[in-house]
Amino acid sequence: MARKIPYWHPQVEHFDLLPKLSGNEFNGVGEPVPRRPRQIFWLKRTAGHPFGRLQDAVVDRYNGVPALYEVFANADRGPRPRSVPEAIRNVQPAEEWARQVKEFALANEADLVGIARRDSAWFYEGYEADLPFVIVFALAMDYEMLTQQPSTFENPIAQVEVANQYNRGARVVARTADWLLERGYRARMHAGPWVHGLALVPAAIAAGMGELGKHGSLINRALGSSFRLAAVETDMPLAVDTPDRFGADEFCARCQVCTDACPPGAIHNDKGMVRGVQKWWVDFDKCIPYFNETFGCAICLAVCPWSKPGRAPSLAEKWSIRAAAKSENDGEATHADLGKRA
């Protein structure tokens, strides 16, 4: 799957669903000033939204596949969290609360848990950001199922697996929110694909879940890119984690696997300016017609060298050493340059 594939020609009906407004422009590609992101997908209500017609078409096409409709329609997405307005707020050190909430989530289907202090920049325009902490969960995907790409009406196995992990994330979120409420704290849930107002990737980076990859998704030192995210906001005082740098960014700068494997050519070999930050980004306007045709493409995640089972830890060890050496060399060069200027 990592070979360079022939150029893909979008079906007219999918291409025609794109509004005149560029999704890249809407997302802030090329903008030099920081701002909050604007939500394109997945909105509960799409009336009046410039991409509402496109989202409705994606959802209708997805639900037209019996296996994909059933995986959400009859899914176990966890209990409805109980409202406990009179719960006595328990008090413990932030470090102890963090230990307990991670222990609980890991015992209730989460594969990884990280905690970050809320940043308003992670929330889409128009959404409230009033709870101080975000608990992020990672849900590993079955690699063999994920690699059954691209999904078709007759063989949607890869997207069934994606949906299964979204459902597992919803269960983790619901149970964790209930656990927080029982202890007297607020909880706001974000379970895919309808993740409310929180952009999960930047929150996950801050929570130590990994680095942003060239394909626009996270790379984790244990799971590679073969995982999904979910989160809970809360006002429970929690000790936070720190971002994890292990060389994935440097690896992506040299790797072209996902770039070569992307049928519509939506992945770039160079970073670009997006809302005031130089970062990897995926061309929405090129990606979405193919995404629609294939019921939610994830080819880039499947071909990512980090995703192959057992590969990520060894790559992380190797590239951590390289990244540390580069940082040390850059520091020495800067110090020497400053000495010359003094």
List the helices and strands and how they pair.
Blueprint: H1 12-15, H2 23-27, H3 52-63, H4 66-73, H5 94-106, E1 112-117, E2 133-140, H6 143-146, H7 157-182, E3 187-191, H8 200-206, E4 211-212, E5 218-219, E6 227-234, H9 248-254, H10 257-261, E7 272-274, E8 277-279, H11 284-293, H12 299-303, H13 311-341
Antiparallel strand pairs: 1-2, 2-6, 3-6, 4-5, 7-8
Helix pairs in contact: 4-7
What does this structure look like?
Helix 4 runs parallel beside helix 7. The strands form three sheets. Strands 1-2-6-3 form a four-stranded antiparallel sheet, sandwiched between helices. Strands 4-5 form a two-stranded antiparallel sheet. It has one domain. A hairpin with a 2-residue loop joins strand 7 and strand 8. The protein is an alpha+beta fold and 342 residues long.
- The portion of residues assigned to helices is 40-55%
The first-to-last residue Cα distance is 53 Å
From the spread of the alpha carbons, the general shape counts as: globular
* Spatial strand sequence of the major β-sheet: 1-2-6-3
Please, what is the average pLDDT?
90
N-to-C series of helices and strands:
HHHHHEEHHEHEEEHHEEHHH
List the uncertain runs.
Answer: 338-342
Radius of gyration: 21 Å
Please identify the structural class as seen in this structure. alpha+beta
Percent strand: 5-15%
Quick one: biggest sheet?
Answer: 4 strands, antiparallel
Q: Number of DSSP helices?
A: 13
